[in-house]
Amino acid sequence: MARVQIDVPDIGGSEGAEVIEILVAPGDTVDIDQGLIVLESDKASMEIPSTIAGTVVELLVAEGDELVEGSPMVVVDASDAAGEADTAAQAAGSEDAVAETGGASADTDKAELDREQSAPQSPTPQPVTPEPTVPESATPPTAKPVAASGAEPTLAVEDHGDSVYAGPAVRKLAREFGVPLAAVAGSGPHGRILKEDLHGFVKNSLGAGDTKAGGALPKVPDVDFAQFGEVEITERSKLDKLTAANMQRSWLNVPHVTQFDDADITELEAFRKSLKADAEGRGTKLTPVPFILKACAVALKTNPKLNSSLSQDGQVLVYKKYVHIGMAVDTPAGLVVPVLRDVDRKGIWELAAEVQEMAALARERKLKPQDMQGGCFTISSLGSIGGRGFTPIVNPPEVAILGVSKAAVQPVWDGEQFTPRTLMPLTLSYDHRVVNGGDAGRFLTGLVALLSDTRRLSL
């Protein structure tokens, strides 16, 4: 029986994906494609499957660990010759990789084991091709260590003139914040700098600034709510915290303007309800969302500035020739936004089936990172919940987002009398650096016209 170490595969470029659930234990028998662990990144939760069949010998991760592509997960005893062949291929690949890089390259820092272990573990069965642990004290400033399973990986990399100990996700975050890692005190094992250390450093630096001079945002004071009565404290999910950070970043960096209008969907609703039997025959549910998606796609093609993105330096606009639209979905774990591709090329029935499928995947936490990338525009609908309007926050690098509220029958003056019409409130929030009032007005007016007369969607 050959032992095989299974590593994290390509997870769509996510760095520092957190282990939120472990699905197997030592001694369990696993099949190919059976889930091993569940990772949660800043985009989605994903189940990482086994690439071989066999028996789990050793777990190399724990809940709360942050992993990247290439991080080891488990050691499995292969159950057949195919598993042994995979082991040999993996071992050969590992040896070739080490030989090619000489075991030391800062460019391969991305593959570093970005997880925390408080102390060396007790001796456990080792995976194939174990290699000697490189002691921290002996690791050169730019060397990437190769450690045996159960040993604490170490890394000392030259950063701002000093030797620091931090993983690739932390280094990337430090570059984005403009923080010299040498100035940050690490609280992890062996002084390793964690993301929490970086966040704390930035928070303290901002807090020390002159808020009156605009050097930092004013602090919101902490309050001990327990002094007023009984409280319950719960930890927020990673998805909730990341969503909050993304929304705050957008709000601080994007000058938002929101425009309001009502779409008369009386005829659309009559047409949609007349197709109820057809929808049941197709095994799907026809809601207003597919019509809104299709209308937005047509409006984006007519008003391409809302289908563009601003470059990071603000010097150029990137106009997209495709129309991929995100659809915000409320799930028990938090808000996620799967992206429906090429909406302009799809019919209402195809969109209805895709909306239902993507919403189900989102609620079951089975969306893949690529399912949530590449959006040009987002629709956030609260129609099934209620409310007369809200102002959604733009999701950069997109430049606009549409908010949809619950439709209601209201009296509308037709020039001679008031008649009952079904009106659906729409709100368009946009990045005023790119979209001006005229652009937004033409887009929203055109969208209202499309929804008021579905025949226009075929033109």
Short overview:
The protein is α+β, with helices and mostly antiparallel strands and 459 residues long.
Quick tags:
alpha+beta, seven-stranded mixed β-sheet
Question: What do these coordinates show?
Answer:
By secondary structure, the protein is an alpha+beta fold. It contains nine helices and 21 strands. The strands form six sheets. Strands 11, 14, 17, 18, 19, 20 and 21 form a seven-stranded mixed β-sheet that branches. A four-stranded antiparallel β-sheet has the order 1-8-6-3. It is globular. The chain starts with a strand and ends in a 7-residue tail after the last helix. About 19% of the residues have low confidence.
Q: How many strands in all? A: 21
Task: Bin the helical content.
Answer: 25-40%
Distance between the termini: 65 Å
Total count of helical runs of at least 4 residues: 9
The largest sheet, given as strand count, sense and whether it forms a barrel, is: 7 strands, mixed
Determine the structural class based on helices, strands and strand pairing.
Answer: alpha+beta
Strand/helix succession: EEEEEEEEHEEHHHEHHHEEEEEEHEEEEH
Roughly what is the average pLDDT, rounded to an integer? 80
Strand content: 15-25%
Give me the Rg, rounded. 27 Å
Model regions low in confidence, pLDDT < 50 over at least 5 residues: 81-162, 210-215
The best one-word shape is globular
